[in-house]
Structures are given as structure tokens and as C-alpha cells.
Amino acid sequence: MDKIERIQDFEHIKTLTDSRRLEILRLLMGEAMTLSQLGQILEEHPAQVRYHLKQLEKAGLVELVSTRVVRGFVEKYYRAKANAYSLHELILPYSPERHFVAVLGSHDMALDALAQQIKREKTPELELLVLPTGSLEGLVALRQGGAQLAGCHLLDSESGEYNLPFVRHLFPDREIAVVTLAYREQGLIVASGNPLGIKGLEDLAREDITMINRNRGSGTRLWLDRQLETLAIPSSALRGYQREVNTHTAVADSVCHGKIDVGLGLRAAARERALDFIPLFEERFDLVLPKEGFQDRDLITIFEYLNSAKFRRYIDRLGGYQSEHTGEQLSP
Q1: 193 and 275 within one domain
Q2: CATH number of the domain encompassing residue 14
Q3: 208-220 per-position pLDDT tens digit
Q4: Which domain holds residue 39?
Q5: Does some domain include residue 270?
Q6: Is the CB of residue 147 less than 8 Å from the CB of residue 275?
Q7: What is the pLDDT of residues 152-167, one digit of tens each?
């Protein structure tokens, strides 16, 4: 992979990490505004505001909603698009008897199990709110203070490394910890017996096959898009490419119920639904947090259970998971 591809991988992150763009996005969440109005509030020249606005528009976070002619000039009004609101600060529930920890990022079945088992077996008053938003949005939420933990599996095409290059890029000014949850296997989930004889990604372009996709910003979706580019398969050639779900279990459910023929997902999700699985790659899934988080009693409880022999045994029983490196801390 060349440097241009790597820059494309970081484009979404770079758009959101610029403080001026974040300020523009927050203003446009409140109401539709023009370049001139934004410039006055930010004390920036309209030309500079226009540059940042175009970057946000390119990333699909803002949109032109109306125009108005004032004294012979056309004024354009922009506002934040609906998908931008998922990047806003998360408001956690409050209860004096319970503690909540927000975990945003890519979907993972071991992480779901961690949340369930901590509440049931370890600390009933502690609840992990696991929200599958995608790896990129999980890291952005962590940066903005909207999550205590982010779960991600982002592959940097130049270095071949998971997650660490993205963490370094997004948090150049903060001490961040990266803890491995598990290694896991992904591939194509197909119906039991694989009646359509699907063998690999190239088959997704067949006219008799309908797929389902993962949400934009998820590590699985980014991996798939990169592979399609390498294989010179246009996404327009894939039936069902635009249809998205947020979890691996939703992919498996869609195949199980006969709604679609194939989807990219975890071996564990296929195994849970007694479906066939065509392995494609193994990846590392990490949990990311500020280093000071290790002083928080709720996070201490979470990582104590994550490092327990009982949880490791559970991971190994999921199918397609390896717990050998579970709990290891990596240096960004």
C-alpha cells in the first residue's frame, strides 16, 4: 500500500480532530448558519471558514440547506447532518446506586460478554454501556470526552499495524493506553452448507449474490473497501453494498433468516447461528483509554475481570478468538 492510501485512511480522523472544524460543527448543530455568520462568531475570515466547511461537507458531516439573496448576494445556509450528532458528547444516565462506563467503537462479541459478565458476576452496580458506532467514531468520542473506553480494530495499510498509528495521530498531546482485548478471525458468513458456493471476496460481484455491509467508519467496512480497491471491484457492482448494519450478530442474523446471501463478519457470529464461514483474516481488537483512567475504580474493576482466567476461557470458547494476548498493554 502506498502513502496516498494511508492518507485516505486518516482523512476522516483529520477532518474531526481540527479544533476549528469541531467548533464549526457544534455551531451548526445548534442552527443553520452562513459563512459570514460563522466567521463573525469565530473571528475568522470567511475564506478560511469556507475551507473548513468544505472539509466537513466532504466528510458528510454538514450540508447546504437553503439559500437567500441579500442585497444582490446569495447567502448559503449550512447545518450539521444527522450522522454528525453521533459524534456529540455522550450524556450518561445518572443513578446514585449504579455506575456507568461508556464504551464506544466497533462491535465485538467478547466485549459484549465482558459487559454482561461484570454486571452479573462481578459488580452488579457497574454497567458497561457498549454502543457499536464504529472504530473511528469510538476514537473520536474518546477524544471529545464522550466515552471512557473506545474499542477498535483499524489496520494501517502502510505499517500493517492495528490501531496504534491511528491513536498516535488522534492523540498527539495526551498519554493514551492501548489494551488488547483479543485476536479474532473475520471472514464471509454464508448459509449453512454454502449453497451458492461462495469462495472469496470476488464472488460478492456475482449477479446471483446479495450481500449486507457494515456501517461506515467500522474497521470491518474499512478493511472491505480497501480489499475491493485492491481487487479493482467497484462497490457499485455489489448488490446490497449500500445496506448497512452495526454489528456482526446483525450480519449473521440477516444470513440466518435468508434476507441476504453473505456478509463480512466474525467466525463467532457465524458459529452462534450455525452458519458456514469462509475465513479471510485475523486481527487485533484493542480497548483504548486515557492513561489516567487506570486510576478510576470502575475501570480497574473492568480490567481486573478482563485479565481473569475465567474471562480468557470464555473468549477461547467463542470460536475464532484467541486470548493469548488478552490484557497486554501496548505503547502508541
Answers
A1: yes
A2: 1.10.10.10
A3: 999 999 988 789 9
A4: 3-85
A5: yes
A6: no
A7: 999 998 899 999 999 9
Q: Is residue 90 one of the residues assigned to a domain?
A: no
Task: Give the integer Cα–Cα distance in Å for 198 and 214.
Answer: 19
- Please give the grid coordinates belonging to residue 58: 466532504
In tens, the pLDDT along 114-127 reads 999 988 877 778 88
* Amino acid at site 59: A
Greatest Cα-to-Cα distance within the chain, rounded to the nearest angstrom: 72
**Residue pair 170/13 in contact by the 8 Å Cβ criterion:** yes
Alpha-carbon span 90 to 53, nearest angstrom: 24
Please give the single-letter amino acid code of residue 157. S
Mean pLDDT, the chain, integer: 87
Structural domain count, the chain? 3
Q: 464472488: which residue's cell?
A: 203
Q: How far apart are CA 300 and CA 307, in angstroms?
A: 11
Lowest-confidence region among 14-23, 165-174, 177-186: 14-23
- Does 277 share its domain with 193? yes
Look at residue 327 and tell me if it is in a domain: no
CATH number, domain of 267, equals: 3.40.190.10
C-alpha 160: how far from chain center: 18
pTM of the model: 0.74
Q: Locate 179 and state its grid cell.
A: 489494551
Please determine, for residue 88, whether its predicted confidence score (pLDDT) is greater than 50.
no
Cα–Cα distance, 220 to 218 (Å, whole number): 5
